[in-house]
Amino acid sequence: MSERRALIERTTTETSVKVALSLDGGHVACSTGVAFFDHMLDQLGRHSHLGLEIVATGDLEVDAHHTVEDVGIVLGQALRAALGDARGIRRYGWALVPMEESLASVALDLSGRPLLVYRAEIQAEVIGSFDVALAEEFLMALCRTGGLTLHVSLLESKNAHHGLEAIFKAVARALSDAVSMEPRAAGEVPSTKGVL
Question: For position 83, which CATH number holds?
């Protein structure tokens, strides 16, 4: 089996983002200048059992929007590159994750068809300096460039931090399942079309 890893860098007038991704595990370290977002990215890396290293700088003097969205763009590009032709993967993943009083449900398909369905009522607009609406922007960017169909539902939550953490952990667990190798697949692409 070839190495399932990618290193992607993207620089614009607004941000500079570098993502190193290994689908088969490794070190997790994320630094974007947005503390709560780093915390969520750390959850994503650790609970998916992926190797994930992210370094991003951006125009935070404006706000965190460009940085968060561009990290999603580059992470999606890295995911698609690391998957290659996706031979032998499970393709689908889903998770139901509690975080104290919060409960998140996630289902995803590494289909190559980008779509985000996001149903999450968060009881705050800001956590620390993080605009809660940016979680959806991040996931949308990840879906667009990573080719994911992703359904996210926050079923219960009273605490905004717990709600977003449950979502990121659920995305992590679902992604872990989807990129894992299926022993019965005999190296085939998981689609009747022969390609994803």
Answer: 3.30.230.40
pTM of the predicted structure, to 2 decimals: 0.94
Encoded amino acid at 30, one letter? C
- As a whole number of angstroms, the distance between CA 196 and CA 131 comes to 34
Give the start-end residues of each E strand in 34-185: 51-58, 92-99, 102-109, 115-119, 126-127, 130-131, 149-156
Residue 135 in any domain: the answer is yes
pLDDT, one tens digit per residue, over 50-109 is 999 999 999 999 999 999 999 999 999 999 999 999 989 999 999 999 999 999 999 999
Q: Which of 192, 167, 196 lies closest to 179, judged by CA?
A: 196
Helix (H, G, I), strand (E, B) or coil at 188: coil
**Domain assignment present for 109:** yes
Amino acid at 81: A
Q: Is residue 54 part of a domain?
A: yes
In whole angstroms, give the CA distance from residue 42 to residue 164: 13
The tally of domains found in the chain comes to: 1
Q: What is the rounded CA–CA span in Å between residue 114 and residue 119?
A: 17
Asked if the model's pLDDT at residue 162 lies above 80, the reply is yes
Q: What is the CA radius of gyration of the chain?
A: 16
Domain-located, residue 192: no
Quick check: 1 pLDDT over 60?
Answer: no
pLDDT at 192 over 70: no
